[in-house]
Amino acid sequence: MTAFWVAVALVVAGFAGWPVTALVFRLARTIDDKADAAKAAEETRRLEQDPSADVTVDNPSVTGAASQAVDGELTATPGQPASDGPAAGQALPSQRILRGGAIIGVLERLGVCLAILAGQPVAIAYIVAIKGLGRFAELKETPVAAERFIIGTLTSMLWAAGTAAAVRVIFLQ
Hints:
The relative contact order is 0.16. Helix 1 runs antiparallel to helix 4 and helix 5 (122-141) packs antiparallel against helix 6 (143-170). The chain has a domain at 1-41 and 101-173. It has 6 helices and 2 strands, in the order αααββααα. It is 67% helix and 2% strand. It is an all-alpha fold and 173 residues long.
């Protein structure tokens, strides 16, 4: 009977943790979006009240000039990309953040669950260390990746630890 409960704990911790983690990511994105919207509204309100922000710039399309000189520099006409920027027809390459995260998350939850069920919570430190070292380069160069890593790792570990602790206390005494 013990093997049955261990298997149930592993399945629930490993595979039911993915929707929980996805829900936490969605919640975090909603909170970020609301904070960004509030910051933009505050900035707009501040600019509307700032008398020095009321600056009028001549529109080259109205005056007929192709470009206008500003302090000896040329500015591009509206609708034209800057010479050092991407061309209008080119799309920027898309890069997935933290590739393989779903598979790593399942393995992480399985490892945490097994560590707790086996009575070896020190093994959780090894799991975190291996995961952190494997992702170090990505986390170092991309703040968004670091944020996702922290949120995903904490959510996964809490789910797996909670599942394993519940099964161990209720069914494996």
